[in-house]
């Protein structure tokens, strides 16, 4: 597989009135094209900070991040970032929300890119709602719009920061399947941050387990669930419960 992303000895420290706080300590891993990586760890260990550093929104205190061998020093349209909440603008239609990244990157009049967004809306059941407003959509549909917006500039890698956490449990399971299917259909690489162990096992090819702060990589697991199954089907598959128990113990008993 082609190495797409490299996180090399990334460290992060915050300066406060009480002194320096070390958040991340020499985080080091690679992400390959087409992979789905999940990052789990204790609350406050710096999971979201890792995504912010990858996205070029936060500068590490040490180390570097490479995308296709080039160091990331600032935000780039080659990296899409999907946040915890859908962050759709209530005064914009579904289509206008999905087109927003094109405006931000000065590609509003790029007919090819606009056509690509329209094709995504058609492909994933949102075209007939293109003139609707976010308040008229279900939570699952809003998340689909948010994902299509993230895909608008055809990024090479998607960063997902607990994108299902604002949904109720039943909706969460269905949307998880939807988002996973879209990412795989579009042949995208993804890095997911989640506090939900079951979600990580259901979605990921590999899971990175972080320690408490200052955060280091405790373990990196290859998840051997059947990749032909949907995330919901994986939750019911053989071996799922043993993976859950193993990861739960790591998170709760790590030194």
Provide structural commentary.
- The protein is an alpha/beta fold.
- It has two domains: 1-78 and 157-171 and 188-255, 3-Layer(aba) Sandwich (Rossmann fold); 84-154, no CATH class.
- Helix content is 35%, strand content 26%.
- It has a six-stranded mixed β-sheet with strand order 6-7-8-3-9-10, with helices on both faces. Strands 2-1-4-5 form a four-stranded antiparallel β-sheet, with helices on one face.
- Helix 4 (139-151) packs parallel to helix 5 and helix 6 packs across helix 8 (240-253).
- The chain is globular and about 50 Å long.
Which helices and strands, and how do they pair?
Blueprint: E1 3-16, E2 19-32, E3 36-40, H1 47-54, E4 62-67, E5 70-71, E6 79-82, H2 94-104, H3 111-123, H4 139-151, E7 157-161, H5 169-185, E8 189-193, H6 197-203, E9 206-210, E10 217-222, H7 231-235, H8 240-253
Parallel strand pairs: 3-8, 3-9, 6-7, 7-8
Antiparallel strand pairs: 1-2, 1-4, 4-5, 9-10
Which radius of gyration do the C-alpha atoms yield? 18 Å
The largest sheet, given as strand count, sense and whether it forms a barrel, is: 6 strands, mixed
Average pLDDT over all residues: 90
CATH class of the largest domain: Alpha Beta
User: Helical proportion?
Assistant: 25-40%
Short description:
By secondary structure, this protein is an alpha/beta fold.
Defining traits:
globular; 8 helices; Rossmann fold; four-stranded antiparallel sheet; 255 residues; alpha/beta; 2 domains; 35% helix
């Amino acid at each position: 597989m082609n190495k797409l992303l490299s996180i090399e000895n990334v460290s992060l420290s915050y300066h406060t009135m009480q002194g320096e706080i070390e958040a991340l300590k020499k985080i080091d891993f690679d992400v390959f094209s087409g992979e789905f990586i999940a990052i789990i760890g204790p609350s406050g260990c710096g999971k979201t900070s890792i995504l912010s550093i990858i996205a070029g929104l936060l500068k590490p205190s040490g180390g570097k991040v490479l995308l296709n061998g080039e160091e990331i020093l600032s935000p780039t349209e080659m990296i899409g970032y999907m946040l915890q909440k859908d962050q759709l603008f209530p005064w914009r239609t579904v289509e206008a929300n999905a087109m927003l990244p094109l405006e931000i990157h000065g590609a509003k009049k790029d007919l090819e890119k606009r056509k690509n967004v329209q094709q995504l809306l058609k492909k994933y059941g949102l075209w007939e709602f293109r003139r609707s407003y976010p308040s008229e959509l279900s939570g699952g549909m809003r998340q689909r719009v948010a994902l299509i917006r993230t895909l608008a500039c055809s990024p090479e890698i998607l960063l997902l920061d607990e994108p299902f956490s604002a949904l109720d449990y039943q909706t969460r399971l269905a949307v998880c399947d939807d988002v996973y299917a879209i990412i795989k259909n579009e042949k995208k690489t993804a890095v997911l941050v989640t506090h939900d162990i079951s979600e990580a096992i259901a979605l990921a090819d590999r899971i990175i387990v972080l320690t408490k702060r200052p955060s280091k990589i405790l373990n990196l697991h290859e998840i051997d669930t059947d990749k032909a199954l949907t995330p919901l089907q994986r939750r019911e598959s053989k071996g799922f419960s043993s993976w859950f128990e193993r990861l739960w113990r790591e998170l709760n008993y790590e030194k």
